[in-house]
Amino acid sequence: MSITNNLTVGTKGVRTTWGYHVKFLVNSACHIWGNQVWNTGDLSKNNWWVALITFGEGWHNNHHAFEYSARHGLEWWQIDICWYMMVFLESIGLATNVKLPTEGNKLKRSFASTNKFK
Ligand SMILES: [Zn+2]
């Protein structure tokens, strides 16, 4: 095996291992540490440092509240690299029918509106 093949195999191994660990990190750390913005009835939380290393997946409470949304970082300050890529793909016509939560959806999931009826 040549050195190029060794590098290719090594790079794929690192990339795959990194991908799995980051995915598992989101589903463990974001159910323990962070802030809960939306009333999802579970332990999901938004975690900024997980979001930074996972390109936006760390806005996990947002994801649980609006699982259909292509955008996880719903606030302007919530960095979401995956969303920025989606905007680019939509701008060149490679992504269509991109779904986002409406203001009505957000109101239904807000703590303020759910507490009003208790
Ligand atoms: Zn989760």
UniProtKB/TrEMBL annotation:
Biological process annotations from GO: very long-chain fatty acid biosynthetic process
Hydrolase in keyword set: no
Main subcellular location of this protein, as a coarse class: membrane
Entry-linked CDD domains: Delta9-FADS-like (cd03505)
Locations listed in the record: Membrane
Membrane topology: Multi-pass membrane protein
Essential cofactor(s): Fe(2+)
InterPro entries, per database record: Acyl-CoA_DS
The protein's annotated pathway: Lipid metabolism
Keyword Nucleotide-binding included in the entry's annotation: no
Superkingdom of origin: Eukaryota
Alphabetized GO MF terms: oxidoreductase activity, acting on paired donors, with oxidation of a pair of donors resulting in the reduction of molecular oxygen to two molecules of water
UniProt keywords, alphabetically: Fatty acid biosynthesis, Fatty acid metabolism, Lipid biosynthesis, Lipid metabolism, Membrane, Oxidoreductase, Transmembrane, Transmembrane helix
GO CC entries: endoplasmic reticulum membrane
Domain comment, as recorded: The histidine box domains are involved in binding the catalytic metal ions.
Family: Belongs to the fatty acid desaturase type 1 family.
Protein name as annotated: Fatty acid desaturase, type 1, core
Originating species: Artemisia annua
UniProt lineage: Eukaryota, Viridiplantae, Streptophyta, Embryophyta, Tracheophyta
